[in-house]
UniProtKB/TrEMBL annotation:
Keywords: Acyltransferase, Cell inner membrane, Cell membrane, Membrane, Transferase. GO terms for molecular function: acyltransferase activity. It is found in: Cell inner membrane. This is Lipid A biosynthesis lauroyl acyltransferase. CDD domains: LPLAT_LABLAT-like (cd07984). InterPro entries: LipA_acyltrans. The lineage of its organism: Bacteria, Pseudomonadati, Pseudomonadota, Alphaproteobacteria, Hyphomicrobiales. Pfam families: Lip_A_acyltrans. The keyword Membrane applies.
Amino acid sequence: MKRFLSRYAFKLRKAKNWLVAQIIFVILRILRRIPARKAIRFTEKMAYLIGPWTARHKLVLYNLERAFPEKSEKEREAIARDMWGNMARLAAEYVFVEELIDHDLANGDGGRIEVEGIERFLDLRDNPRPFIVFTAHTGNFELLPIIAAKYGLDVTALFRPPNNPYVAQKLMSARRTHMGHLVPSQVGAAWSLAGVLETGKGVGLLVDQKFHKGALTKFFGLKVRTNPLLVKLARNYDCEVYPARSIRLPNGRFRLEIEPAVELPRNENGQIDVAATAQLLNDKVESWVREYPGQWQWFHDRWNIKHKLYK
């Protein structure tokens, strides 16, 4: 009986994932028939309305309350709505990615995208060496590896596939078309990234995801566990580490910032300090989020408190 129920639950979950994926694909096909700016703006407006009614909105507001206790409830609600709008734009922009990357690297400014720190980008491209670029779920963070791949900077990006396997397959196909080399976040990923650095190439990592183990650090003054992967890779290959982020600007524009390489803290033995470096990463991401709070994905359970919120 238990075996039958398990199989039934699996088939039911599979059918649900398929149905959800088909709805998403239909919506994306409809968007393709609308001019880019109108389609993206329409999607954003719908998210403003629908987002607050989703199950995740409660977690969003709880996270905002803990991160910004000094802000009013009205201010936090406005940030939450901005976040839902940003997420909707991110999804819609996948449909029109070719129009977004009409970018001229000659002067760091062209089309809808400007690049700050273009000299660092060109140096990494024209003088190959192992390096790590880290970023966070801010703005349209997907544009960073897309621009890198389009203009010949060899970066292998680690990514976490969506839980829905049908959406994941479609997204993986789209990412491979525009983003160059990709490594799914699963068993063996660390070895794959190490192999990339071993050959003198670059690695891209998101460092603001929930992690159950790792270094005990703080984010917005609250305790979190931070993935030590970047620290271990940097320690083993003694390579440069660059912060980079995407900022969503008015009128459908973006600014990509590639900051100078950071000096990683070291312990008394001269080795890169895992806990101190993990905290450095959190501090950098926190500074980005505080500057543009509506562009970060607050529905992620970064502090691993969802079980407390819904029990």
